[in-house]
């Protein structure tokens, strides 16, 4: 009882700090930059709806939709990473490493190559590609059960194979299709609109709700399959449902923005360290994931004057440094 009383303020404090930083990023993204006056009076005019039409369009149509996309997709990637790291019981077990986002991107490439750049077909292709890569990893990693290390190694191998296939496919399709695929591969929130993000956000909300509903069972799986089964949990069924939810979250996010690295890998681990627990928290992972992606997108928009970088370039640069740190740290344990 005393331990619970001690831990609760730490959880609240950590989440409150992250929420405060997220709010600062939201305000900075909406009201800082070109074409927008930054004094308090003009900002209040924008909030109250009394600003001129041009500034209202810039803030509420262009910037707000992009910001909302970063919020929803970042949360989805954070939860997806938390699900897979919990299932394989390894901090490297994220969709970035195990190849599920590469499989989703393969589905997008095939959709573009055969049917053209049709948005919902790309989403469907990403879902099928992500699920197909997950099935391959699940089958090849099975040896009288699944171990986290074996899933990661097989996932890396499948990811390398699919990456090679993606490169071959990009070289054999038409120039227009190859250029479209190249834009997807960078991972970007550029051109995000309410029309694109709202339907996808509804689908991601359903998948997030499914993941949160399975959160307690996920905790039991972390205790071991035998313990979870003794407590009345259907181990294989629960694992398959969680894998489907995690893969679908990654696939839908990839279909909207292209593959964005680092968020799924880092968000659950940062959340776990902030909460100082051994368990991976889905809610904190979602919050950290949203904060990381919105922060990376803010850097992408303002780090290079006169142009906006794809957010995937920023996240993969940060992710490379973090991955080296994580591997070296795990090697010392």
Automatic annotation (TrEMBL):
Entries under InterPro entries matching the protein: ABC_BtuC-like, ABC_transptr_permease_BtuC
Topology relative to the membrane: Multi-pass membrane protein
Keyword Repressor assigned: no
Alphabetized UniProt keyword annotations: Cell membrane, Membrane, Transmembrane, Transmembrane helix, Transport
CDD domains recorded: TM_ABC_iron-siderophores_like
Coiled coil: none
Cellular location(s): Cell membrane
TM annotation in the entry: 12-32, 67-88, 100-120, 126-142, 149-169, 193-214, 240-267, 307-327
Main location: membrane
Family that this chain belongs to: Belongs to the binding-protein-dependent transport system permease family. FecCD subfamily.
PANTHER family membership: FERRIC ENTEROBACTIN TRANSPORT SYSTEM PERMEASE PROTEIN, FERRIC ENTEROBACTIN TRANSPORT SYSTEM PERMEASE PROTEIN FEPG
Name of this chain's protein: Iron chelate uptake ABC transporter family permease subunit
């Amino acid at each position: 009882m005393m331990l619970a009383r001690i831990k609760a303020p730490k959880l609240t404090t950590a989440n409150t700090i992250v929420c405060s930083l997220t709010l600062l990023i939201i305000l900075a993204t909406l009201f800082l930059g070109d074409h927008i006056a930054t004094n308090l009076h003009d900002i209040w005019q924008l909030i109250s709806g009394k600003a001129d039409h041009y500034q209202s369009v810039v803030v509420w149509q262009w910037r707000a939709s992009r910001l909302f996309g970063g919020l929803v997709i970042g949360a989805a990637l954070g939860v997806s990473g938390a699900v897979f790291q919990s299932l394989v019981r390894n901090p490297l077990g994220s969709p970035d490493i195990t190849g599920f986002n590469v499989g989703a991107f393969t589905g997008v490439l095939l959709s573009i190559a055969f049917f053209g750049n049709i948005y919902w077909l790309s989403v469907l292709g990403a879902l099928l590609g992500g699920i197909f890569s997950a099935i391959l990893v699940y089958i090849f990693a099975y040896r009288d059960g699944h171990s986290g290390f074996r899933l990661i190694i097989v996932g890396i191998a499948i990811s390398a194979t699919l990456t090679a296939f993606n490169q071959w496919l990009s070289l054999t399709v038409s120039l227009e299709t190859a250029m479209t695929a190249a834009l997807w591969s960078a991972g970007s929130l550029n051109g995000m609109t309410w029309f694109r993000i709202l339907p996808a956000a509804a689908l991601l909300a359903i998948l997030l709700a499914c993941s949160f509903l399975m959160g307690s069972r996920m905790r039991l799986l972390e205790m071991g399959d035998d313990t979870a089964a003794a407590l009345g949990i259907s181990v294989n069924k629960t694992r398959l449902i969680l894998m489907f939810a995690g893969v679908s979250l990654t696939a839908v996010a990839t279909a909207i923005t292209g593959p964005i690295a680092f968020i799924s890998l880092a968000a659950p681990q940062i959340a776990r360290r902030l909460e100082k627990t051994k368990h991976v928290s889905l809610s904190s992972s979602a919050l950290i994931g949203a904060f990381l992606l919105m922060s990376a997108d803010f850097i992408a928009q303002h780090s290079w004057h006169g142009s906006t970088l794809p957010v995937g370039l920023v996240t993969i640069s940060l992710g490379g440094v973090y991955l080296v740190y994580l591997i070296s740290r795990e090697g010392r344990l």
